[in-house]
Design goal:
CATH topology: L-fuculose-1-phosphate Aldolase
Strand content: 5-15%
CATH architecture: 3-Layer(aba) Sandwich
Bound molecules: zinc ion
Oligomer: single chain
Helix content: 25-40%
CATH superfamily: Class II aldolase/adducin N-terminal domain
CATH class: Alpha Beta
Shape: globular
Strand order of the largest sheet: 4-2-1-6-9-8-7
Largest sheet: 7 strands, mixed
Number of helices: 7
Distance between the termini: 18 Å
Number of strands: 9
Order of helices and strands: HEEEEEHEHHEHEEHH
Length: about 240
């Protein structure tokens, strides 16, 4: 079984997230479930130069318990301390095959400022507005999520939503695909940035009118995911494979 296309996709996802300012430096990771017992996840090595420079080789095949998924997979690579974020999210909902854990400063700042992310806009970013409408929960502990128990605690705080803010820490975004998990994180970040911007000029954050939702259609994955992803990859100046 070759996992090269999936490794390439996950590496691209890490680079897209970094290029959007969601993963400054060396912290953050993306994963993709492969089967009942295994996933691909971004690992660290002694040649790691950070999320923005993630290479397909940095994506390693591991079992849900953090051991190598195949011979040699962890030679020279270290599984993230926060593997539990990915594993517990995937175990809680098998539809979540992809998980992004990132440290976007705008989202962390908005939460620390006491701002609840709400649907303050509509057609500006319909997927983001719909995400906010469903609620953006907060896991109130600022800890490193390095045990199954803490992972389960974070998942409980998600309350069935696909995203959660980890206070003083970052976010977790879960979806059926890597593209969706990253795009969802980008939408969450855009919402946080706009909220902070409005607040910065002493503006009030108000939900859009209920009557507007009827005219904020789901434009479909061809537009919301495929086209949006092509754009994100093109921004990097590399070819999607
Ligand atoms: Zn983290």
């Amino acid at each position: 079984m070759t996992l090269d296309p999936q490794r390439t996709l996950l590496a691209l996802g890490c680079r897209v997230a970094a290029a959007r300012g969601l993963a400054d430096g060396i912290l953050g990771h993306l994963s993709l479930r492969i089967d009942d017992d295994r996933l691909l996840i971004r690992c660290r090595s002694d040649t790691d130069t950070g999320m923005a420079f993630t290479r397909p080789n940095d994506i390693r095949h591991v079992r849900l318990d953090g051991t190598a998924g195949a011979a040699g997979e962890l030679d020279g690579y270290r599984v993230p301390n926060e593997l539990s974020i990915h594993v517990e999210t995937m175990l809680a909902n098998p539809a979540y095959r992809a998980v992004a854990h990132l440290h976007p400063p705008a989202v962390v700042a908005a939460d620390l400022a006491g701002i609840t992310l709400r649907p303050i806009y509509g057609a500006y970013d319909i997927p983001g507005a719909r995400l906010a409408r469903g609620g953006v929960p907060v896991y109130e502990r600022a800890v490193l999520i390095r045990s199954a128990q803490l992972g389960k605690e974070m998942v409980a705080a998600m309350r069935g939503r696909p995203v959660v803010i980890c206070r003083g820490h970052g976010i977790t975004s879960a979806a059926a695909s890597v593209e969706q998990a990253v795009l969802q994180a980008i939408s969450l970040d855009a919402l946080a940035r706009m909220s902070l911007r409005v607040r910065a000029v002493a503006g009030a954050l108000r939900d859009i009118d209920d009557a507007d939702w009827d005219d904020l259609p789901d434009l479909g994955s061809g537009f919301n995911v495929e086209a949006a992803w092509r754009h994100e990859v093109a921004r990097l100046g590399v070819q999607a494979s």
